[in-house]
Amino acid sequence: MTEKRQLEFFLLRYVPNAVRDEPVNIGLVMTESGGDGGGFAGVHFTKDWRRVRCLHPDVDVEWIEALAREVEARMASVADRALLLHQMSDSWSNAIQLSPVQHCVAEDPAREMERLAKMLIETPPMLGPLIERKEKTSGVPWIRAAMSKAFEDAGVWRLLTRNLLAATYSVEGDPLKFDFAYALDRELKLFQAVSFAARPQDAVEFALHYAKIAPTIERLRAQKPVLTAVVEDSYDATNDAVIFASALMKEENIRVARVQEMPGIAEVARREMRL
Fold this sequence. Notes:
Layout: E1 5-14, E2 24-32, E3 41-45, H1 50-55, H2 61-75, H3 78-91, E4 96-98, E5 102-106, H4 109-120, H5 128-137, H6 140-153, E6 161-165, E7 177-183, E8 187-193, H7 200-221, E9 224-231, H8 240-251, E10 255-258, H9 262-272
Parallel strand pairs: 8-9, 9-10
Antiparallel strand pairs: 1-2, 1-4, 1-5, 2-3, 6-7, 7-8
């Protein structure tokens, strides 16, 4: 009979907003207990980002995948493994957080790691189609993709400023980026994907944030910012956060447009840019 081996594991959780505390399990790290540190060590990161995007549409998948590659490489090195584990438990406390360490026994550590990952990290098969349907018609990435297509179809996408940094008009480190922009003589046209269906609370935060920096944009550029917030075609108009966000945007002269309006918006951009 094969001897059972003593194992420890913890989960890596994506938590971009500590106040909301809406973690999503994205990875699992397993090591063999005791010994000189040269026993089994394995890492499993999800390749399926549907669950993460449902809760956090703005997730930076490329950053997490780069982090995953670093963890996998360092865990494969016995010399670097102990330092990495110490760094993770001691200083990781922002967007990526660690669960408490759990213990288990198994004859085959690799198989046990995959079993736990399937159970604790990966999207259950029955939920996949539901998540996919939601992703296709809601959320910031879907809205932004629809905006890009409309601007491309109008022939103006390459002439737009993309990811305009709000930090230029705010404070250093401000993470907000305006999705698309173009300048006229006296106006700066801004376009932002905002989700009323998936993340209405973020829409409220965005409206409040924009209200603070709009005067500075106008002062520094000598151009009046004219912002269009593009939202889903369908959302719950009775949701308190949506009602509040809509009222704030109206008060701050932010136009709210549905995705279905994007072809017309893009055509206006084409004419204003004299193409």
